[in-house]
Amino acid sequence: MFEILSYTASDGAPLKYGRLYNPNQPDTGKALLFVPGLGGSVKGALHFLELLLPEYSPIYSPDLRGFGINPIQSPLLRADIIASDLEAFYQGVIAPAGHPHLALSGISLGGVLATLLATQHPERYTSLTLLAPAFKPHKRSFSVAYILRNVMSHLLLGPKARTCLPYGLEAVTGNATILNDPQYKGALNLVLTPGFLLSVRDLCNRAMKNISTLQLPCLMVVPGQDIVCDPDIMRQAYRKIPGSTPKHLLEYADFYHDVLFEAEHPRLAQETLKWLLSLDPPPSSGEASSP
What we know:
Strand content: 15-25%
Order of helices and strands: EEEHEHEHEHEHHEHEHEH
Strand order of the largest sheet: 1-2-4-3-5-6-9-10
Number of domains: 1
Oligomer: single chain
Structural class: alpha/beta
Distance between the termini: 35 Å
Radius of gyration: 19 Å
CATH topology: Rossmann fold
Shape: globular
Number of helices: 9
C-alpha cells in the first residue's frame, strides 16, 4: 500500500513524502529510507521499491523540495536547504517511529545526499545503497561551455538567473517503454537557477570527500552507459571507501543513469536484496527453526 503524507520541513514549510508498506506482512523491524534524485519522485520508483517490500516495510521516500510531489512556484536558489529538509524529516517522522533497523538508499543526487547522511550520522542506519550516485557530472552532458554560461549568468544576474538541465529523457534511460510513455514527456524540462546547480556541485564535492570516512556497509551500483554522471568517478568513490568497511560493487554495462527506469530493474532489486540480506547476522541456535 502506498500513501502520501506530510511533514514539517527545516524552515517550517509543509512538504510531502511517500510511505510504502505491506499491511498483510508481519513487522520485520526493518525499514528503508530512499532519497530520490534531482527532478525524480517516489512515484517513479514505486515499481522498484515494491520489490523490496518482502524485507523492508515501511519504505519512506521524501521527494526533494521543488520536485516530484513537492513542486514550488519559484526555483530554488541553493541546494543546502534540501539537506536540512532530510534532517527535519528524520527528526519529525523516522525517529519517533523508532525503527530498530533502518537501511538508507539514494539515487543520483539522492545518492549524494544519502552519502552525507550516512557519514554524518552512521549510528542511525544499518547500510547504504548508492544507485548511480551523482558525485560528478559527465562532460558529455555538462560541457565546459554550459558550465561557464551558468557561472556568468549567476555572476551577472544573481537570483534572477535561470537555466535548464542540459540533457533530456533519452540520456536518462534506454527503456523504450519509458521513452514512449506520455507521463514522462517533458519530465526533465526543469527551470533551475545556476546558483542552485553550483550549490549542488558543493554537496557532491563534500560527499566525495566524506565517503573516505564511511563506516556503514555500502552497495554501489554503477551504470556503464551513464552520460549524466561520470561512472569513472563513481568507481573512484567506491575505491575511496575504507577497506575495513564492507562494500560491494554492481556494474551494469548496458544501464543508463536512472537505473530504476531500466527494463531489467527486477534483477537490480533482486541483487540489492541479496546483498542486504547477506548483512543480516545468522540466527542463533535458539532461533533455529524446528525440523
